[in-house]
Amino acid sequence: MNKIFRIASVFALACAALVYTGCTKDFSQDINGVNEKADNALVQIESLKTAVAKLEAFQSQAEVELAALKADKADKAQVAADIQAALSTANANLETAKNA
């Protein structure tokens, strides 16, 4: 009986030592590391939000310029058509004048 008591006591001390050393780990460095990574992620998110806002502004400016170019192209096409009509009229008048 005494032998079983000694084995149980040694086993209890070993378990207590393992539990004590296993539960005394300092997690402050781990927590600080996680906090630092979270802070870095937040900074990256904010920089990405800024980049997206700049790209959206650039896109809207490009759309405005594209619309202006399309309008300018339509105006130039109308001017070209007007010039062509005037040239045709002038050629017709010239032919009429030659034949008269």
* Structural shape: rod-shaped
Low-confidence regions: none
Put simply, the count of helices is 2
Largest sheet: none
List SSEs in N-to-C order. HH
Instruction: Tell me the total number of β-strands.
Output: 0
Q: How would you characterize this protein structure?
A:
- The chain has 100 residues and is an all-alpha fold.
- The protein is rod-shaped.
Which features does this protein show?
100 residues, mainly alpha, 94% helix, rod-shaped
Please write out the topology.
Elements (H helix, E strand, L loop, with lengths): L1 H22 L4 H72 L1
Could you provide a short overview of the structure?
With 100 residues, the chain is mostly helical. The chain has helices at residues 2-23, 28-99.
